[in-house]
Every structure is written in C-alpha cells, then in structure tokens.
Fold:
Amino acid sequence: MVVVRCLQSSSPPIPPSNHNNDTTTPIPPPPSSSLNKTLITRRRTIIFTAASVLASSSSSYLHFYQNSLLPSSSSSSSSLHSAIAQQQVDDELQQQEDRVVSLFQETSPSVVFIKDLEIANSPKSSDAIVPIDDESAKVEGTGSGFIWDKFGHIVTNYHVVAKLITDTSGQQRCKVFLADAKGNSFSREGKIIGFDPAYDLAVLKVDIEENEVKPVSLGTSGDLHVGQSCFAIGNPYGYENTLTTGVVSGLGREIPSPNGSAIRGAIQTDAAINSGNSGGPLIDSFGHVIGVNTATFTRKGTGVSSGVNFAIPIDTVVRTVPYLIVYGTPYSNRY
Structure:
C-alpha cells in the first residue's frame, strides 16, 4: 500500500505563475533525462523504504507469533508429562493390587476354618460314633489353621482347641472346613495329634481320603524387618477367608502363653487380628508363612482390638511341629 501511494504522488513540479508585468525570463523545465533520473531515484528510495518497513513488520509479527505459541507449547508439554506420570502411578497401584489378589488366591486354599463343637448327647459307649454335623451340636468357639503337609496335618493355636484337648466327658468335637487343591470345599472331623501350650501350638489330623490338599509355603522369620508388608488370612467372627493387610510393626516381642510362661520373639503387626483369626497364617509379600496369628492387645472391658497384634514366629513353629506330629509332645516334655 505504501509503494502505490508514493508512486501516485510523484509528478513534475509546476512552476509558479508570475502576475507581474516585469519581464522575466521563464525557468526552463529540467531536461527530460534529468527528470527521469529524479523519478527513478525517488522510486528506488520509496521502494527500498517500503521493503524495509515490510521486512521489519514481518520480523516483528513472526517474533510475536512465536512468542505467543511458546506458552501454549510449554503448557501442552507439561500436561503431557503430568498425564504420563499419573498413568505410571496408576499402573503401579494396579500392579500392587493384582499382586495382593494373586497372593490371596494362591494362599487361601491352604487356610482352614475350625469349629469347636459340644455334642449334646454323648454316646454311652466309646465305640459309638456321633456325627459332627449333628444339629444338636453346640458351637463353642471358632478359629483358624493352615495345612502343614499333604497328609492332612493342620497347625493351629493350642487355645483354639484347648477344650478338645482337655475334654474328659467325650462331648467335645472339632470340625475342620477346608478346600482341596482344585478349590472344592469339604469338611472333616479333626483329631488331636500333638500340642505344646508353652508355644500355644497344636496339630490336628483330618482324613483327606482321595482329596488332594495344598500345604502352605513356609518362609522364615529370621530376616524380617520392621516396616515390611504382611497379610493375615483367617476367619474372624466366623467370616471365612478374610484377608487383612498391614506391616511388621515390631520384632522380638514377649507375650504370655496358655500355660503362663512367656513366648519370646513374637512378631508384632497392625494387620487386623480378631477373634477367629487365631491359628491362621501371617504371610509375607511372596505368600510365605512367617508366623501364626495368636493374640491381640485389647483394652480391658472393650474386647476391641487396638491394632497391636502378635504372631508366633514361623522359625519357632518349624522347630516344634515335627516333634508334635511324631511324638505328640514337644521335645522338652519327653525327658
């Protein structure tokens, strides 16, 4: 636009008119070649100036355009990084959940539900058999346990089956609910094989017949660390196959045993352990049993767990159970 206007305004100068009568010599017009040179010079100057203005305007506009894009580009990049980071967090959480689900699915078939029953009408003859499914049987307590081996040995707490152990009337029975390796549930009567009240441990035996059972995977309690994850599977208040999660809260604790002595080296955890969880396994993140859930600290008169729970370390269990299976008593009681 500037160039066009400049070109239209360039015309030869008109000499001023002289109204005086004085004789004057007219000013001759500039030669044709001189006029052409003048016009060409002015055109070049105007075109050059206009081109400079256009170049400057284009440069300023490009700079402005680029600057206007930078914030948007930076914002988009930041949003993209945030979305990627959030997706990574979501993926990690999903993986953690999947691991816990898999852990429960792999371990729960090895956990059993134990009911203490009292038969109302005991048989007069010791040879008579009273079915544990008798409707007249009274449930006096419940607990948990886990399958020790493929022969049907069940490990639990002494206090879970104490009534059966100390029964002299013949009215006490123990019913064990378990699942085979394929996940099919069945129940059998549990017989006492051995017990050790000093460590609050007992071993039951069930007739698995043709059923193939899945023993637990044993770990070790010697290399535990405070803060590592742990999981409790049991039957609190009769709710079968309940999973609770927590961490190892403390090590080397001392808790009382049923016979009044102290159980040393107990594992403290905040994984919920309530009535009915006793005898069930405490497992690590790999599904290995690291302890036997046995006690919880409750405020007097409330019966409510305070989150301070204890398990017998599996290293103690591994040292004790084989003697209970073979001899029925711990090694220390045989001499």
In short: Confidence is low (pLDDT under 50) at residues 1-27, 45-51, 61-66. DSSP finds four helices and 14 strands in the chain. The two ends are 118 Å apart (CA to CA).
